[in-house]
């Protein structure tokens, strides 16, 4: 479905063209702001990772002091080494952190630069 607003054509996706709009230009602006649904889903997954206090605590510590070992993270976060390792496994699978081996010690650092602004916002 096409809407005209200020001489521009705005398109509503076919799967939503049957829905009535009160202010067509606002609907089009909202659709444009939402953008790519895959990008929205990726950001929702980031927020989901941050929604658990233990993971958020670890990410804040890694962002500030990383690269940092599991043992040091456990001490800083007040968590067991096992709980830290489990959380890091999830964060690593999600591509948010990555390990760096230094001999027998593995240290973690943030690997997703998109998460840094969220962590900064969490501390202000």
Main pleated-sheet profile? 3 strands, antiparallel
- Work out the helicity level: 40-55%
**Class per helix and strand makeup:** alpha+beta
Mean pLDDT: 86
Order of the strands making up the biggest sheet: 3-5-4
CATH topology of the largest domain: Arc Repressor Mutant, subunit A
Total DSSP helices: 6
Please provide a written account of the structure.
The strands form two sheets. Strands 3-5-4 form a three-stranded antiparallel beta sheet. It has a two-stranded antiparallel ribbon with strand order 1-2. It folds into two domains: about 1-35, no CATH class; about 50-120, Winged helix-like DNA-binding domain superfamily/Winged helix DNA-binding domain (Arc Repressor Mutant, subunit A, Orthogonal Bundle), CATH 1.10.10.10. It has about 120 residues and is α+β, with helices and mostly antiparallel strands. Strand 1 and strand 2 form a beta hairpin. The radius of gyration is 21 Å and the shape is elongated. The chain has helices at about 25-35, 35-50, 55-65, 70-75, 80-95, 115-120, and strands at about 1-5, 10, 70, 95-100, 105-110. GO terms for molecular function: DNA binding; DNA-binding transcription factor activity. Pfam families: MarR_2 (PF12802).
């Amino acid at each position: 479905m096409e809407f005209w607003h200020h001489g521009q054509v705005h398109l509503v996706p076919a799967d939503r063209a049957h829905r009535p709009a009160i202010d067509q230009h606002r609907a089009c602006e909202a659709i444009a702001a939402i953008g790519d649904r895959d990008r929205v889903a990726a950001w929702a997954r980031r927020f989901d990772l941050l929604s658990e206090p233990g993971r958020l605590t670890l990410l804040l510590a890694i962002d500030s002091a990383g690269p940092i070992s599991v043992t040091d993270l456990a001490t800083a976060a007040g968590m067991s080494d096992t709980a830290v390792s489990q959380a890091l496994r999830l964060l690593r699978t999600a591509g948010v952190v990555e390990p760096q081996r230094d001999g027998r010690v593995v240290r973690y650092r943030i690997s997703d630069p998109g998460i840094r602004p969220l962590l900064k916002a969490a501390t202000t």
